[in-house]
Amino acid sequence: xxxxxxxxxxxxxxxxxxxxxxxxxxxxxxIANMWETMYGSNxxxxxxxxxxxxxxxFVIDSEQIIHNLEEDEKNDYPxxxxxxxxxxxxxxxxxxxxxWAYNEGCLSIPKVREDVNRAETVTLSYVDENFTPxxxxxxxxxARVILHxxxxxDGVLFIDHLKPLKRRMLKSKLEDITKGKIRVDYKMTFPK
Length: 192
What we know:
Its cofactor is Fe(2+). By secondary structure, the protein is an alpha+beta fold.
C-alpha cells in the first residue's frame, strides 16, 4: 500500500527516532509499504519519519542510480555497485574520505534541490529486516543516500546542511510546502 509522505514542517521530521525490536507491530507489512511508497514516488530512499513513524528504519535502492549512470560517470563512483537494502536501528560508526557535493532532493521537501556536501564513506551498524546484525562500510552515491536517510532518523533534513543565506532564499518555497501549496504526483500529508 502506498502511504502518504509527510511534508516539510511536520513535527515528526524533527524527532530523533527510536530503536525498535523484532516485535514491532506489522513490521514486514510496514517495510513492504515503504518500498511501494518509495518506488511510487520515484524515490531512491525513504525513512520511517517520512511516513509519520518516529522509528529508526529506512530503505534505500541506490542500484537504480548506479545502473542509470553513463559509462564514463560510473568511474566517478569506484567500488559503488549500489544496494537495495533495509536498515533498522542504524547508528553511524564513522564517516570518512573527502566531502563532496551532490545535488539532493527529498520526497518531504518536493521541488527543492540543492548541492549538499557529505562524506565519501559511511560505516554503519544496523540490523536488516530479519534482525541480523551488520557493520558495513558504504561509499559514493550509496553512502550519500544512506547519510540522507540516516539524517531523517536523527531529525535532520538535507536543507539543514545548506549555508544560512541559501536557506533564507528557500524560505518562501518551504512555507508553500508547509501550507500544501504545491503539486506532486504522490500522496502527501501536510502539517495542520
